[in-house]
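DATA SHEET
Item: assembly model
Revision: 1
Owner: S.N.
Input lines:
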Amino acid sequence: MTCDAIQNRLLALPDPRQVPDELRGHLDGCLACRAFLTRAVRLDKLLAAIPVPPSSEETRAAFLDRVTEAGPVIKRIPVVRRRDSATDLLENGRWQYAAAGLAAAVLVAVGWLAFRDGGTPPSRNDPATVAGHDLLKKTIGHVVTDEKALAKVDKPEQRMQTWADVTTDLRDEIGRVYRHAPKDDLKSLAELFEKVAEHGLLQQADLAVTRGQEPIARRQELLQKTIQRVSEVETDLAAFVQSAPEDKKLALRQIRETARKVREGLTNLQPRLVGVWPAKGV
Amino acid sequence: MVGREGCPTRTPDPPRLVPTEQDSLLPAGEESDWIAAAQAGDRQAFGRLVERYWDRLYRWLYHLTRDRHQAEDLVQETFLKVLAALDSFRPGSNFRAWLFRIGHNNFVNLKRAERRTGHPLPEDVAGSPVAAPPEAAANREALRVVAKAVAELPVEFRSALILRADEGLSFREVAAVLRITEETARWRVFKARQKLMKVLAPELLPPAKAEADPETGT
C-alpha cells in the first residue's frame, strides 16, 4: 500500500490514536507516515480544544427555571432572549426567527398536549416560519395568549373547546390582516392554521370522543357546537377568498380547505360517540 | 439473479440510512433513570438532562452557527422540542444522538429561513473566548489557526467533524444525527480532516516534536 493510501486510511479512522494492526506494519517502517499520524492525532486533540464563547449562565438558569416550574402541563415556554433582543430582532431583521420561535412554542404545546393523552406523536415538521410583520406579531401573540388558557384545563373536552377558541381567534386575525399582509405571511399563516386546527383541535376532539370524561350527551353537545364553530370559520374564510386580492387567494383557499377538512373530521367523530364506528374507507 | 449453482446471488444492500440511532442500547444508568422520570412528568429530571447536555449541544451548535446568541436560541428550541416529544423516545436508545439530531434539524430550519429572508446568520467577531481547557493555553496560536480553518469548512463537513472529534460520537451516531448513511458520515469526517491537514500541517507539528510517538503523544 502506498503512503498516500495509508495516510488516507488513517484520516478515515474513527480515532487516529487507535491504529488497526493492518496499518502498523507500514507505520513501523515509514517515518513520513508516522509523522503524518502524529499530526493527525494532534489535529483531533486541537479540534476538541477549540475554545468557543461561553453560553450565558443567565440564559441557561432562566430556561431551567421555566422547564422545571411546577404545573400539570408544560405550556408555552418562551425562549429566553437576551435583554436587547426585542430591539435587535426588529432592527436587524431577526424577527423572523423570533416569530418562528413563538409559533414553534405554540406547535410544541400542541404536540405536547396531544401526545400527553396518548395521541399520535407530535409532528416533527418545521415550525411555521412567519415573516416579520407587525400584524402577524399580534396574531402570534394572540394565539399564544389563548394557549396559556390551555394550562388551566385538564379534560380533553375542555381542551377541545379551548383549541376551538384558538382556531376562531386565528380566523379573526386572518380576517384583519389578509388584505394587507404580504403573500408569504399568509402562506405562513396557512401553515400555522393547519397545525392549530388539524393537530390541535381535531386531535383533541378525537381524544374527547375516545377518552373524554364528560357524559356522552354532554360530549355530543360540545362536539356539535365545535362543528358549528368550524363551519362558521369555513364560511368566513370563503368570504375572505371572495374579497381578497388575487395574489392572496391561494393561501386563503388553503386555509379554507383546512377548515373544511377539520369540519368533516369532526363530523366523522359523531357516530363514534354512540358506538357506531364508520367502516374503513367510508 | 441466479448464480452458478442455481442459488440466487445477493444484490448488494443499498447504503442504509441510519434512522436507528434509537437502536443502539446504552447500559442502564442514571441518565436512563432521568429520562424515565422525565417521561413520567418529573420536571426536575428533565432539568438534569438539560444541565447535562446544554454545554455540549451549545458548543456544537456554536460551531455550526458561529454566533453565540443563535446557538443559545437553538439550544433552547431543541430542548423544547425534546420535551414535547419525550414520550416518543424509546427507553434504552441513544438519547444524545436523538437530542443532537433535533438540534441539527433546528439549525437546518434556521438556515432555510435565512436563505428565504436574505438575513444571513451573523458571524461572531473574534472575541476573547474563555474556558479553554488548561492544556490549550500553551497552544493558543495553534488553536486560533485551527479554529479559523474549521470555521471555513463547508458546514456539512464541519458538523460531522465536530460531532466525531469533539463530541466523540461514532460514525454511526454521526450518521443518525445528520440523517446520512454511515459511509457518508465517515467520508465527511475524512474529507474535513484531509482539508485541515493540508492547510495546517506546519502548525500542527512543531519541529521539536517530529519524532513523537503518535499514539501516546510523548
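QC remark: Residues 175 and 184 of chain B are 7 Å apart (CA to CA).
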